[in-house]
């Protein structure tokens, strides 16, 4: 069962290729950039190239994309060409080849403005039922690509699963305020409460989606670390998040203080992964409790896979302020 992985030179693509190779599973890496994990170099919008790559493939994991960090550096047409047309080309080729599973890597950024509650409102409890409100061209094109996957599942019987992943990149936040207030590890540890996931868990979700796609036909799932919060915590998270966290994790304050870390004063959204756990059988290993356990042992809370993949960035050039320009 050869799995075609698009975006094999990127964060997730490399993590998938590393994991598949380590498991001895046949995998073909495709990317527009050469890399040690890329077998075929070319654009996903090239129909002839994609058709040739699809030969002998039984499943596709489509992780190639223009990301949010490209919004200020790439035009809207480039997003349409890569995220929409590229996905369409892959779907057409996969359907024609009789591929058994198509897994599309989407993003929780697809929810857009729906993630930000009004002042005075509780934090948002974000499930798959929340309707997206596009914030930028990235979100628009990812939602459009999701819809193409659903269309092909229904009209052409191509089993397709959409995974809306939360943050797993290791780079610093694009918000200067966050970078100024928190050390990188501190900021990302905080995010494990509500809006981050370890790349090792993202990989396991994708591989489970490949297995489950034929039975599901179509599915859309949030892939984020399991939150410790419930809906009863939402008002408190918007008013005094540390009080909620300290109630749930009494030794958090001491563990953070020993490193000069602090919790975010407020949390505005909580991603809920329940559907993925129930329907995919996904069991993420890395959450905030695991972060604290690593701190007790004075160890890095990231998975070995996350450390192996490391930081890649999103652009060939560097920028004077921040990891990338913000539109």
Task: Summarize the entry for a quick read.
This protein is 41% helix and 13% strand. It has one domain: NAD(P)-binding Rossmann-like Domain (Rossmann fold), CATH 3.40.50.720.
3D structure, described in words:
Keywords: Isomerase. Its EC number is 5.1.3.2. It is an enzyme of class 5 (isomerase). It comes from Labrys wisconsinensis. GO terms for molecular function: UDP-glucose 4-epimerase activity. This protein has 327 residues and is of the alpha/beta class. It has one domain: NAD(P)-binding Rossmann-like Domain (Rossmann fold), CATH 3.40.50. It has 12 helices and 9 strands. The strands form 2 sheets. The chain has a 7-stranded parallel sheet with strand order 3-2-1-4-5-7-8, sandwiched between helices. A two-stranded parallel ribbon has the order 6-9. Strand 4, helix 3 and strand 5 form a beta-alpha-beta unit. It is globular, with a radius of gyration of 19 Å. The N and C termini lie far apart (42 Å). The mean pLDDT is 94.
């Amino acid at each position: 069962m050869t799995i075609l992985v698009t975006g094999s030179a990127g964060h997730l693509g490399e993590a998938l290729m590393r994991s598949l190779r380590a498991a001895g599973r046949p995998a073909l890496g495709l990317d527009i950039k050469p890399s040690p994990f890329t077998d075929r170099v070319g654009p996903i919008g090239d129909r002839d190239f994609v058709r040739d790559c699809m030969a002998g493939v039984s499943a596709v994991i489509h992780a190639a994309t223009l990301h949010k960090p490209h919004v200020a550096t790439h035009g809207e047409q480039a997003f349409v060409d890569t995220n929409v047309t590229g996905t369409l080309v892959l779907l057409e080729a996969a359907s024609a080849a009789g591929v058994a599973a198509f897994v599309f890597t989407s993003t929780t950024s697809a929810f857009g403005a729906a993630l930000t509650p009004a002042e005075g409102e509780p934090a948002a409890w974000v499930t798959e039922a929340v309707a997206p409100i596009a914030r930028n061209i990235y979100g628009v094109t990812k939602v459009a690509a999701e819809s193409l996957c659903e269309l092909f599942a229904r009209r052409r019987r191509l089993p397709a699963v959409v995974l809306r992943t939360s943050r797993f990149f290791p780079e610093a936040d694009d918000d200067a305020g966050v970078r100024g207030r928190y050390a990188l590890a501190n900021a990302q540890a905080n995010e494990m409460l509500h809006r981050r996931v370890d790349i090792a868990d993202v990989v396991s979700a994708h591989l489970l989606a490949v297995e489950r796609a034929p039975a599901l036909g179509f599915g859309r799932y949030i892939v984020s670390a399991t939150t410790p919060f419930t809906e009863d915590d939402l008002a408190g998270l918007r008013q005094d998040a540390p009080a909620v966290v300290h109630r749930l994790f009494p030794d958090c304050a001491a563990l953070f203080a020993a490193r000069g870390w602090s919790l975010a004063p407020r949390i505005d959204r909580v991603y809920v992964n329940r559907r993925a756990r129930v329907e995919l059988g996904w069991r993420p290993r890395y959450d905030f409790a695991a972060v604290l356990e690593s701190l007790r042992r004075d160890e890095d809370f990231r998975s070995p896979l996350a450390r192996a993949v490391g930081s890649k960035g999103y652009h060939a050039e560097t920028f004077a302020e921040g990891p990338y320009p913000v539109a």
